[in-house]
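Tutorial, part two.
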Amino acid sequence: MPELIIIIGAVIVSWLVFTWLVKVVKASMATGIVLTIIVLLLQLVFDVKVSELLQEIIQLPQTIWQLVN
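Running the prediction step on this input gives:
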């Protein structure tokens, strides 16, 4: 009888972890798709190169720090 309770508990925990993992993957995919669309629009509309965008992202903390001070 205790083995059955352990198996049921393990199945429940496994199901909870699996559903959480599916939610995380779905959210990550949605974020990735949105970022891809934004970068593509920046390239097509404003002719922004990926290297320029990455350079601005790298400098973003410094820019924010300068705005705060």
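The chain is about 95% helix and 0% strand. In part three we will examine how such features are distributed along the chain.
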